[in-house]
Amino acid sequence: MPDKKEDIRIGVFLCHCGSNIAGYLNMEELEEFSKKLPHVTFVQRNLYSCSEGGINEIKKGIKEQNLNRVVVASCTPRTHEPLFRSSCGEAGLNPYLFEMVNIRDQCSWVHMQEKEDGTTKAKDLIRMGVAKAALLEPQEPIMSEVQIRALVIGGGIAGMTATLAFANRGYEVVLVEKEEALGGMLNHLSKLGPTMTDASALAEEKVRAVTGHSKITVFTKAKVTLVQGFIGKYKVDIETESGNKNIDIGVIVVATGGRAFVPEGLYGYDGKRVITQLELEVLLKNGLASAIKNVVMIQCVGSRNEERPYCSRICCQTAVKNAMLIREQNPDAKVSILYRDMQMYGVENEEMFRDSKVKRVRYINYDPANPPEVEPDNVRVYHALLGRDMDLAADLVVLSTPIVAQDDANVVSQLLRVPIDENGFFMEGHVKLKPLDFATSGIFLCGSARFPANIREAVAQGLGAASRASIPLAKGSVVVEPIISVLANEDACRGCGLCVALCPYGALEIQNTEKGRKVHVIDVACKGCGVCAATCYQHALSINSFTDKQIEAQVEAFLN
Amino acid sequence: MCTGRVDPVIVAEAFKKGLDGLLVVGCHFGECNYVSGNFQAKAKLDMTRRLIKHVGVNEERLSFQQCSSGEGALFAEIVGKFSKTIRELGPIGGDGDRVKAPEIFKKLEAAEAVLAGEKIRWVIGKRTPFIESGNMYGEVFTEHEFNRAIDMIIVEEIEVQEILGKLKEGAQSVKDLAKALSIPSERVFRNITALKRKGMIKLEKVSGRTPIFQLVPQEV
Amino acid sequence: MLDVGRHPNIELLAYSEVENVEGEAGDFKVTVRRKTRYVEEDKCTGCGACAEKCPTVVPDAFNEGLGDRRAIYSYFAQGIPSTHTIDPDHCRQLNGKKCGICAKTCQAEAINFDKEDRIVELNVGAIIVAAGYDVFDPGRIPEYRYNEIPNVVTAIEFERLLSASGPTGGHMDRPSDRAVVAEIEALEKKVRKSQKALDKLEEKFNEPSAAFYKKFQAGQYQDDEDRQKWADKYAAHLAVIEPLEELKKKAAGFTVAKRLAFIQCVGSRDFRFYPFCSGYCCMHSIKEAMIAHEHEPETTSSIFGMDIRAVGKGFEEYKIRGGNNSNITYVRGRVAEITEGPNNNPIVTYEDTRERKVKSQEFDMVVLATACAPIKGIAALAKTVGVELDKYNFIKTSSLSPVDTTTPGIFVCGCAESPMDVPESVAQASSAAERAAEIAFQPELEKEKAVA
């Protein structure tokens, strides 16, 4: 729109930042330079643009000089852009008609000894900022209502904890469990370490609380079959015993848990004399046969190997706990644990580990290159620390197998369009900083669906995921910055889906429109990274405030 | 905004307009604020390096480095090293590059057209699935195989763009094109056939026994 | 941090201490002492001009004392709030001397030497304690000689050495070598000063000092007072030059540390100190060894531990990768003693439990993976806030309510509760926020009930 160009009035505010900028750059020269740039109608220098006085000058400039674009050349947008943006807004200028140029951090601070070169560089930066400012378009923040109802998938301890947390905050929750009863893994366990809490009692208590809460709707023997929509506005189909339900949902928590690996073909596993820890739990629950006098446990069965390289975190503590329970039920039973590393991390576990030694549980270190052998009456093991073979009598051999991903983890993954890792566990948004969020807004994660977790961790994560998910529920709406992807050229889009596959946030989808298959940007889910725009071979997608034209203008300004 | 936004077209365009060096600094892998944008950036820029090298630009002029916001000293080191490299190379199209100015800018124009084109963008966009889960026939590529495929596409695509560029100047025969562009004539012929099929060029006339081809004006 | 500083619903009271807590869940009255920074926070722009001019140099606690800062400082570069603080223990002005340079330098007029502590009363519904942990002082383990051998450092100190923004800019310069370099610098400064004085004298007497000194030593000029002074000065100059040359020779052979030992369970799983496992240190050591290898590909590392506890998501894979790609050897065994060998090289004596042999090995540097200890003021804080501690002095919780303290309405997260790594801390912080929100933002319905 060439005729509009005449109307563009850019104000440039040059911040001295005390002496941080003015001490090292020639501000008079920058002022004169800025005045000559295209569309610049007003230039002013301030001691501190971010001070109250500086902000007032910017507002005054907008009002008195009829500025319709503002450029501040100062420090870093990381700390100050929000302030300048909102100040523009207060003066009646669309906040997205503001552009910030950093002439301090990588300019005056770096070139303290080179005033002339530093000033030249600042000129480049300002020219680029002004060139982009001329092409800026007003934007409006994007707001979307949130359905105040949460969906929790999986009714184990993590899922039930999350469900109760939502309900306690006063939010409606739908809990979907594929099995007949709530409780998950708890239903199969005897006592929980290290406090030796009765698992059934705990499960019962939680189930009672969940089923008795007016805000909670529970569907057992049910599964989620379709999820459409995005944060705040999901439409979820649930297949239940009483028919299909279609429910509006605001946020989703994945708490589908894991399952114990069944060690078919390993160490003579037969489910009778050679069993898993999970099967031992059932024996302990019902009372161990008094004939069992010699028990050998083998750690890392099916984990920390080539096929399944991860350490399943909780099997060592389970073994130690069960060893102590065996000694409790059959006080003269001998229990030996054959291990590689005893993963008794933390305060409580290490304490339980020490207790078990006092209670005469025997620990024997084995080398995975020379693993133990299960024989008809005994287990033969090379004791790696004593350096000799040992024969251990064994009425019962217990294999500590890892928690592995649920068989249907990939189904859930596809339904929700969230990723799973190479072991089938769900992949959080950030391993360290966002352990309970998915990269996709509106979907959260807790418990062994993420990675094997003990009871304490599952409860903490259940609460944590509910906490994260409650944020949009508490606000009642999602507001996002409009610096996001837009389908700028709908005709060009062929609906190929290349961008959809690359979007880290699941913010793009293909829709059938009157014009055929076209991509649709779910604006509240988009974070504006720009990968789609840099990928689209039809150049149909663009990013607000970072359009190809704006970037090209900056490049051109730099080169001229 | 993320390094993943860096569109290779803009990179080629900047070089074409006289940029001497471009350093893109992104987050460390696994620390990307936008989950995986830096992987995309690296893949795209690696490919762009291969392409500018092919057209005669010293590939050291384009660099992708990683550094976190807490690593000021590392950032300074990266920038210092890169500035030194570029200073030593001198202005684009000079002693530092295989192809000299002004021809290099013509080459870069072809490069820009390739980078804006469907084929290379599609393949680079599909890099992760190709390397991790395989193409639609289930063939999984190694990194090396993928890069070789990219190289082949680059050679072909640049040839196509150069042929189109040459034809913009006027209708020509296969033989003349091959000579002008130093491309073996059988490859020019193959490209011409493909372009003809796509309706991008047509036979203008037959001069003696030599067919002469011309551009078909394309709708923008 | 930035998000915390910027969020409209967060009021950040940094550099403050809780003095008193009264009330109950849903209605606490908290008294907070806002310690004075002697800097007006709303005026300070964080520009740092003051720190540049401040004449007083103080060891920098943020860099574990490995670097230094000024008496007016920002805690660290990316800190929020970005305001500066005057350290009242070291500031010249606040200790009665004449100075005030910072106040003259500051163009924002933010310095206020008269500013006093302020007491703030807060009314809150719930409280979360996230007081963190202290690094165990390995000086308490005599056989590791942390205080005697300069090249034995803690994992946190090593972290600063690896950091590109740390005191060595990310180079693994050994503390003993850095001390020599610092000494050289100090001596060179001295030499420059004395050389200046000598230059003047040489000009005055129109003779090089060395030639004069020869004559002086031979007995000339014995009665000349001025020349006597010259001779003294030159002798003192030589007395500095000689050791300086020695040190320079020594420093010429310095390289970065390439042979690293990491010792696990320093203070943890140890009945003398903390019997518990600190959980994160194994991974921390592996990470440090991997980064060291990235910085310097010739680096080899040995990690000495009883068990290598790589229990988190992706941790075991990381550990294996470290062994395969980063020259890390995992040695199963407990280190008995560290002694100092030639060239300040620490020598580690340990039992290799797999080979059942006691061995000794020389390294360039030894890194101690120190225990996660409860913070020093935890007992006082617990008393003030009104929560119970467990027997190790962590804040007491239970397995089934992992963030609830013994007092309703008060919650805990992170290493104040027990040792944990980053993802666990983050997850737990959300859990604590959830529990606090359940109390602080009770659904309207229940509130009515409470009133009735």
Describe the 3D structure.
The complex is a heterotrimer of chains A (560), B (220) and C (452). Chain A is elongated, with a radius of gyration of 31 Å. Chain A folds into four domains: 2-139, Rossmann fold (3-Layer(aba) Sandwich); 149-259 and 404-478, 3-Layer(bba) Sandwich (FAD/NAD(P)-binding domain), CATH 3.50.50.60; 262-401, FAD/NAD(P)-binding domain (3-Layer(bba) Sandwich); 481-544, Alpha-Beta Plaits, CATH 3.30.70. In chain A, 31% of the residues lie in helices and 25% in strands. The two termini of chain A are 23 Å apart. In chain A, helix 2 (52-64) crosses helix 3. Chain B has 220 residues and is mostly helical. Chain B folds into two domains: 3-169, no CATH class; 170-220, Arc Repressor Mutant, subunit A, CATH 1.10.10.10. Chain B has nine helices and five strands; from the N terminus they run αβαβαααααβααββ. Chain B has a three-stranded antiparallel β-sheet with strand order 3-5-4. In chain B, strands 1-2 form a two-stranded parallel ribbon. In chain B, a hairpin with a 2-residue loop joins strand 4 and strand 5. In chain B, helix 4 (103-116) packs across helix 7 (143-168) and helix 5 (118-125) packs antiparallel against helix 7. The longest helix of chain B is centred in the last third of the chain and has 26 residues, at 143-168. The mean pLDDT of chain B is 90. By secondary structure, chain C is an alpha/beta fold. Chain C folds into four domains: 2-21 and 28-122, no CATH class; 135-173 and 256-373, FAD/NAD(P)-binding domain (3-Layer(bba) Sandwich); 176-252; 375-451, no CATH class. Chain C is built from twelve helices and 19 strands. In chain C, helix 4 (155-162) runs parallel beside helix 8, helix 5 (175-205) runs antiparallel to helix 7 and helix 8 runs parallel beside helix 9 (315-325). The two termini of chain C are 41 Å apart. The B-C interface holds B 67, 69-75 and C 77-78, 163-165, 169-170.
Task: Tell me briefly what this model is.
Chain B contains nine helices and five strands, in the order αβαβαααααβααββ. Chain B has 220 residues and is mainly alpha-helical.
